[in-house]
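Internal ticket - ligand job 802, flavin-adenine dinucleotide:
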Amino acid sequence: MSSADLSLEHHEFGEYVRRWLAENAPPPPPERLPITPIEVMTIGQRDYLQAWQRKCYDAGLVGADYPKDYGGHGNIGFQRIANQEMNRAGVPFLINIVGLSMAAPTILQHGTEEQKRKFIPGCLSGEEIWCQGFSEPGAGSDLANQRTSAVRLGDEWIVNGHKVWTSLGHFAKWMILVTRTSKDDKYNGLTYFLCPIEGHPGVTVRPLVKITGETGFNEVFFQDVRIPDAYRLDDVGKGWAVAMTTLLAERGASEGAGSGGGGGESAIRDLIALARGTWRNGLLAADDPVTRDAIMKRAIVAEGLRQNAKRARVPALCDHPMRLPLQQKLTGSEFQQDNARLGVEIAGAHSTLYKRDPRAPQAGHWPLAFLNSYGNTIAAGTNEIQRNILGERVLGLPKSK
Amino acid sequence: MSTTKTALRDFGFGQDEAMLRDMARKMLAERLPMERLRTLVAAAPEPVYDKGERPPWDEQLWAEIVALGWTGLAVGEAEGGSNISLVGIAGIVEEVGRHALPSPLIPTLMASLVLRAAGGDVACEILKRIAGGATASLAVTNDRGSWEPEDAPLVASEQGGDLVLHGEARFVQDAFKANILVGSAKLGDKLVLWAAKTNADGLSLQADHIHDLTRDQASVHFNGVRLGADSIVSRDGAEILKTAWPSLLVLVSADLCGASERLLQTTVDYAKERVQFDRPIGFFQAVKHPLVNAMVEIDRARSLLYHAAAEIVAGSGRAEIAAHMAKSAASDAAAFISDRAIQLHGGIGFTWEYGLHIYFKRNLHNQTLLGDGVHHRKKLADLLIGPVSTSPNLGRDPATS
Ligand SMILES: Cc1cc2nc3c(=O)[nH]c(=O)nc-3n(C[C@H](O)[C@H](O)[C@H](O)COP(=O)(O)OP(=O)(O)OC[C@H]3O[C@@H](n4cnc5c(N)ncnc54)[C@H](O)[C@@H]3O)c2cc1C
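stdout (structure tokens):
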């Protein structure tokens, strides 16, 4: 197909997605939704969001690039368009974030034919929620310092250990799990599994309470948990390389199998609306020059992120192919955090109000968003680690270890 | 139905634009390596700083640049120019900034863009001369250093069919390298655009004693300069200047982006080589992380630069917004990397001989030229939030007033 045909097809798909989203925007949720998928707490929220993902999947907005054999729609290049439109439309987010942006891309790259057919469709439709079992009490930034052990016993593996900060673990059917299968080598002694969670013998999921006072993530204990060898992803000892595939996908270096929604695009409009309705030093905050300057700084970053995404696809304007993709996690999470911090500042005294206070502006959104924003500057490799990665892989500076 | 035009997906930066840019990069890297730049403009501080001489520039190199047709980059084909799009020009100007080229190129491009926005016979005649190798600069800034296009520095009066100009145009860039000045003057409640030779009767240049070693700057005195019909570009120039203004911002932003990337790479190279405490200093995160932050800022500025250029080329309604964003981001990114570049080089970076100051000063000059970050965010706020309420009852809190 010529590139002209392709861009016409892309254009038509974009039109279709816009129309579909306009006509199929879901009814308001039965209860307040959190800001991001990793904060989903209640069964009501889960059911509502799972139904929404299913609908998007059936319409071709999720798994767009994925092969038909694995439940995808087989339209290479379409996912980016769908993601963009879902972001723009201000529709709810897709709940199965670990399935879509970590498990599916990793299985697609490292899985056997049977594994791809068995696991990917549930990631895409959202029927099977996934969680990520990487972090442990002693293995955070130093991810390779894994203690959870897997020992082979015939056709099975016996797993013992302790994972922490497991987002969505309380709803998960499956976990992408990194284990230690050899103590001889820090990096080459790791093996990666697709591990059943819900109702699986020996697995205990315990909720952890976040700084907001809400639950949201978990710790997961493994006591003589049996995993069939057929659920091992890639070779024994290759777990580090497989985990790197996951991390690259997680940090936004690829389109994944679908993402978007949640209204990230409306942040600047929301800040302006807040400033128009808030008093500051006897003036509307929207008339205060310092506040105006601060909001415009945010608007410039917002546009910068959009244009970075565009420039990343123009090789002649990129000095290093990974320079922009590897910035996404860092810049995206700090963008959200800085927006929320400014919202708190503008709301002033009103930002002292918790969401259950009937007079809290925008139902308590700003201070909660600010508190929650640290989740994303810490998770998926802290932003300090992101700066190490960028400094080392892109700028070529010596490794900090 | 809105008829908003939108920019191309690759910003319109295709093979031709990349080829031109690469040619410029190669030529300037060969003809103006750091060592040559340093001996050219910074052999010793005394001539420029103590004696007030104008910084030297390479007129032989300029003759070659003219032979390449660069003065005509922004001139239409009918006038003998090469009619390169603003996106392509931005690519070339980034290289000019990267090599801190002392030359009248950017002022000449600025004057060309204003003349093109004006159109008409007079403008076309001057554009023909520019395409033929004449150099030009803008005289549009008054004694207050105002960057408002409608604040003309001069007063014009009618005498017969002629105009007579009085007053002083300040901060005229590379005036001593320019053959032609294009500027604005108040004529009653209108703003006229005129063009004059720098050797015209009644016109005198007074050199400003400036920090930047890669340009000259002048105050231009108009003591009854008489201009005939062939020098009056427009008797209603306010709209024209306003239309051309975003493209002027793009040029300065491009210079800032190129120079800033050069400073980043220079500092990264130094951080890989310089060993202290038995390690290259780039190992230390107090060195590594700020360099990553600088990269993020430069990338944002660069994406916004091509976005602005593309929106202007497309004639989109968002061009003005995009240009304010680009100049604000470029000024701030430049300020940040200039600061870190000197600091992270330690003592050597503080010396005259090492030459980092050449870039520091060029950036400092360009940061403020046509308005700094705060200026452009103020403009942006007026567009995105709306003007500050002027009526006391509109913006004031009734409770406190
Ligand atoms: C909301 C949330 C959700 C999460 N969800 C999941 C999940 O679903 N699955 C999962 O496996 N994990 C999850 N995590 C865990 C997350 O990946 C880790 O918290 C993260 O990698 C940091 O590890 P740590 O908490 O042990 O902090 P540490 O590694 O102990 O870091 C503490 C501080 O030291 C800094 N630091 C550490 N090493 C360096 C270094 N080399 N250079 C500079 N600074 C350094 C860190 O940046 C940080 O500021 C989640 C975390 C959060 C907050």
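Auto-summary: The longest helix of chain A spans residues 289-311. Residues 101 and 256 of chain A are 5 Å apart (CA to CA).
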